[in-house]
Design a protein that fits this description.
The protein is of the alpha+beta class and 212 residues long. It has helices at 5-14, 29-40, 59-62, 74-77, 92-105, 114-125, 130-151, 164-170, 205-208, and strands spanning 51-56, 80-87, 155-159, 178-187. The longest helix has 22 residues, at 130-151. The two termini are 30 Å apart.
Length: 212
């Protein structure tokens, strides 16, 4: 089963970074469950999934977020605010757990992926910064969530204009091994948001795409 090609394009044309959400409209449970699965199914290099996604719907928590977001109101007014966090490091214990989980999930005998584990360790050891690498993986998940949301008619707004340290403190991430990277507010646009009718501006195909 696939989505018609013209639907993909039309929905991506429809989406924009919402500046004002309708705080009275909430994403229904089945739709949100699909978006959660889109997050969980996000690809990552080596499949390591060095992230955690914090879904914030509690009004008392959301009400504190604008002050930590350059006074932007999207985190408070949206239906669901997703905070993307990345692991601070990829230590041996994490790699061991990932390998064991993979072997178990695929019905493989323990130790089957020893060679893969060795290759992973070598790659990880060569990284200049685990956290920087993990942050790049997080942005893959952010893109997947936003695209999936557009396909089901849910609005979104990616948010880098936030205090990562402030979010960490608010959400109790200190000592967890994870740190805030970026946020994404999801819900439904307010009719008064003028940006909804603004022409989408993208460089022409020949300016950004080269066929080889």
């Amino acid at each position: 089963m696939s989505i018609p090609a013209d639907t993909v394009v039309s929905q991506l044309q429809w989406r924009y970074a919402v500046k004002k959400f309708d705080s009275t409209k909430k994403i229904d449970a089945p739709t949100w469950q699909a978006l959660e699965q889109a997050l969980i199914l996000s690809p990552s290099s080596y499949g390591l999934q060095p992230w955690r996604f914090l879904v914030v719907t509690a009004a008392d928590v959301k009400s504190q977020m604008p002050a930590l977001s350059w006074n932007q109101t999207q985190p408070q007014d949206c239906s669901h605010m997703v905070v993307f966090t990345a692991r601070e490091n990829l230590d041996a214990a994490y790699l061991d757990n990932y390998i064991a989980y993979t072997e178990s999930s695929r019905g493989l005998a323990p130790g089957t992926l020893a060679g893969f584990r060795k290759m992973l360790a070598s790659s990880v050891e060569s990284m200049h910064s685990h956290f920087d690498w993990n942050c790049r993986q997080v942005y893959i998940a952010l893109g997947q969530l936003m695209a999936a949301a557009a396909m089901v008619g849910v609005d979104s707004c990616p948010m880098e204009g936030i205090s990562a340290e402030g979010y960490d403190k608010l959400l109790g991430l200190s000592g967890s091994g994870y740190r805030t990277v970026v946020g994404c507010a999801l819900g439904y646009r307010d009719p008064s948001d003028a940006y909804a009718s603004a022409k989408k501006v993208r460089f022409a195909t020949e300016m950004v795409l080269q066929r080889v």
